[in-house]
Write a structure and sequence with these properties.
The chain is mostly helical. The protein contains 18 helices and two strands.
Length: 336
């Protein structure tokens, strides 16, 4: 058996419990998304639908809905915020794929390869605008502040990552700062906005924000490990894309540190100078697994997942809390 597959089995699907609980709410969110991505400019709904309809798990709006319900929210007050969260997320994906020259997204050809980079960027801008129209309609100024801040922080994280691309000396703390901004921030904002929609206390809002922040870190760490230990069908993108793009993710950084001087020439050529051959990804993966870097990354992901679950201790044990705990388990269910 391939060593990578032995380390990284397919996900167990433990998100299903929460998805069942939120089925009716998520149907309402989906209806809002479908209605608000329409435009008389035909390329906008066509391009948006290409990504939105590609089978993503809708984790961030699901998180917003579940947080609202756990915090005692009733009715459909949080549905527009959940739809706004998905629009923000989709907009960032469209922009990221252009920046990274990605070829696949959610298992489909990236939108910029079909409609071109200018259209992808502009439709991303359209979705950002739609998101903030929805937030304004809720009248929740606090939610506007949370999601506006998240949009800024995400952009800062992406720019920081771009400026430190191919940096073999990137510290683990800087890496964590990057993924905290570009990934975990929207998880945190989704949960916090859901709590705000429910009229939750400041303590409850802070607890759900902490849950989302830790959950987002766990997800990104697991995804970064999957790039070296997973398969394309699991990822929804090409395995090895991070390596080919020269992204300094934690598995790579740990392997560079642990393999030491004997491999420095390889890392400098393949990552630092981006002079790669077809065989380089397989070699990098073998070095990463052999150095224990994949397991170390997944161990850290598990620590963050545990912290996410601990943040929920403020709330009574019920189906919604169990569902959110299961979501944290799902984040790292791809480890051995």
């Amino acid at each position: 058996m391939d060593a990578a597959k032995a380390v990284m089995p397919r996900p167990s699907g433990s998100v299903d419990h929460l998805a069942r609980l939120a089925r009716d709410d998520m149907a309402g969110v989906d209806a809002i998304i479908r209605a608000r991505m329409q435009s008389p400019v035909s390329v906008i709904p066509a391009l948006a639908d290409h990504l939105i309809d590609a089978g993503g798990k809708r984790l961030r709006p699901l998180l917003a809905v579940a947080a609202a319900r756990l915090a005692g929210g009733e009715g459909d007050a949080g549905l527009k915020l959940a739809a706004a969260v998905e629009f923000i997320h989709t907009a960032t994906l469209l922009h990221d794929d252009v920046v990274d020259s990605s070829r696949l997204r959610r298992g489909k050809v990236a939108a910029h390869l079909i409609w071109g980079a200018p259209s992808s960027v502009l439709v991303g801008d359209f979705l950002f605008a739609r998101a903030f129209e929805l937030i304004v309609e809720t009248g929740a100024l606090r939610a506007m502040e949370i999601l506006a801040r998240a949009s800024r922080v995400i952009t800062e994280g992406e720019v920081l990552q771009l400026t430190r691309a191919h940096d073999l000396n990137l510290s683990q703390q800087t890496y964590l700062d990057i993924i905290s901004a570009k990934t975990a921030e929207l998880f945190a904002a989704s949960a916090e906005a859901g709590a705000v929609a429910a009229g939750a206390s400041l303590d409850a809002c802070a607890a759900l924000r902490a849950y989302g922040q830790n959950l987002g870190l766990a997800f990104q760490l697991a995804d970064d490990a999957l790039d070296y230990g997973g398969v394309t069908e699991t990822l929804g993108k090409n395995a090895g894309d991070d390596f080919r793009e020269g992204k300094a993710t934690l598995p790579l950084l740990l392997a560079i540190a642990r393999t030491g001087p004997r491999e420095v020439a390889f890392w400098e050529r393949a990552i630092g100078r981006q002079e790669q051959t077809e065989a380089d990804f397989r070699r990098a993966r073998e070095l990463i697994i052999g150095a224990g870097a994949l397991e170390a990354t997944l161990d850290l992901a598990s620590d963050y997942a545990d912290s996410a679950k601990e943040a929920l201790s403020l709330f009574p044990a019920n189906d919604w809390r169990l569902g959110l705990e299961s979501l944290a388990d799902f984040a790292v269910s791809r480890r051995a």
